[in-house]
Amino acid sequence: MKQHSLTIGSSRGSSEYKIVIGNDLIKESGKWARKWLGKGVAKIAIVSNPKVFKLYGKQAEESLRDAGFTVSHFLMKDGERYKNLRTAESALRLFAASGLTRTDAVVALGGGVVGDLAGFASAIYLRGISYLQIPTTLLSMIDSSIGGKTGVNSPAGKNLTGAFHQPRGVLVDIATLKSLAEREISSGFYEAVKQGALEGKKLFKQTGDFLAEFPPSEISEACDDKDFQVKISSLVASQIAFKARIAAGDERESSTSNNARSRKILNFGHTLAHALEKVTKYRQLTHGEAVGYGTLYAAQLSKTLALCDPKDVKLLNDVVHSVGSLPRLANIDEKEVLEAFRFDKKIIAGSLQMVLLKGIGKPVILHERDIPRTAMQKVLSQLLQKWV
């Protein structure tokens, strides 16, 4: 199968790296890592979790050792609630015990939680060492492994402690999708639908057409099919190209940029998503599921404010629902959710900035002061009552 290769640039000119997309690539990860890290890197620390490492760790370690690296590994507990400073500190201790120097590197092998934690730890270890991303979930392939945002959660909210630290390369092996549960696959597609709604009708249609042909419930079994491999690789490449284009134009998410090319638009659906994750202590929803709810909320709020044509809102809702059934929102306190909005990292100068839609492919960034509080509360109340 033909591989896809994308070069990711930077508006600051500070970094450039390649993303390689293909099937059964982890067995070649050593040659890939040596190519992008260079001959001077002697040691690599793999950051993963027990579940992913059991599936792919041995293969990755052997390939990296064959390429001349000395390899160690750190396994964090699985779950968003473990993406915190305590876990990051444990990773840093492993880096030090393994003798990693400024010229060595970290490899993130896993989903978004692993990638965020590994990227953050590599950003602050010795004031920054190189790292590579090998995402193993659909969500991390198209989202968190791209763009250089790293971070951990705090009691106040999600990703409030972090750093911008670009990877040296990203290796996307679509064969890893075969090992994912349906819920994890669906989680990735909620993010894919969100990005399609931001990019425009081309990516939105490509995503919707793919879901019509390959529902998440059938993807694990379809992974060995050549036609599926070609189409999923093409979709992943399109999704990555969109995010990379936005991230490259506004690498550090400028606080003063509020146009449709701002990196802030990628936060569409995330105001409610992060609030739901916080109030449920990261236990009830996957990140993608929270984004699914956040997308429905932002679309309905756009309709309520007469920003978006109801036909576009219905179309977006239909594609979101084609991903599958979202978990019920049981025992969610509306007041707690609204309170969580106050701790969102998208607050600028005391005002929450929310991404809404004027139509498919037409994001708009509004300040909280421009959105009636009653409208925010009404739409949230309707959502929670409907999905209880």
Which SSEs are present, and which pair or pack?
Blueprint lengths: L3 E5 L8 E6 L6 H9 L5 E6 L1 H17 L3 E6 L9 H13 L7 E6 L1 H13 L5 E6 L2 H7 L4 E6 L2 E8 L4 E5 L8 H18 L1 H13 L2 H7 L3 H24 L20 H10 L7 H18 L5 H14 L10 H8 L5 E2 L2 E7 L5 E5 L5 H14 L2
Parallel strand pairs: 2-9, 3-4, 3-5, 5-6, 6-9
Antiparallel strand pairs: 1-2, 7-8, 10-11, 11-12
3D architecture notes:
The chain is α/β, with parallel strands linked by helices and 388 residues long. It folds into two domains: 4-179, Rossmann fold; 182-386, Dehydroquinate synthase-like - alpha domain (Dehydroquinate synthase-like, alpha domain, Up-down Bundle). The chain is built from 14 helices and twelve strands. A seven-stranded mixed beta sheet has the order 1-2-9-6-5-3-4, sandwiched between helices. Strands 10-11-12 form a three-stranded antiparallel beta sheet, with helices on one face. The protein has a two-stranded antiparallel sheet with strand order 7-8. A hairpin with a 5-residue loop joins strand 11 (351-357) and strand 12 (363-367). The longest helix has 24 residues, at 226-249.
Number of domain modules: 2
> The biggest beta sheet, please?
7 strands, mixed
Oligomer: single chain
**Terminal residue distance:** 44 Å
Number of strands: 12
CATH arch. level architecture of the largest domain: Up-down Bundle
Judged by helices, strands and strand pairing, the structural class is alpha/beta
Number of helices: 14
Q: What percent strand?
A: 15-25%
Strand order of the largest sheet: 1-2-9-6-5-3-4
Choose one word for the global shape.
Answer: globular
Mean pLDDT: 93
CATH superfamily of the largest domain: Dehydroquinate synthase-like - alpha domain
Poorly predicted ranges (pLDDT <50, ≥5 residues)?
none
> Would you list the SSEs in sequence order as H and E?
EEHEHEHEHEHEEEHHHHHHHHEEEH
Q: Helicity range of the residues? A: 40-55%
Could you name the CATH class of the largest domain?
Answer: Mainly Alpha
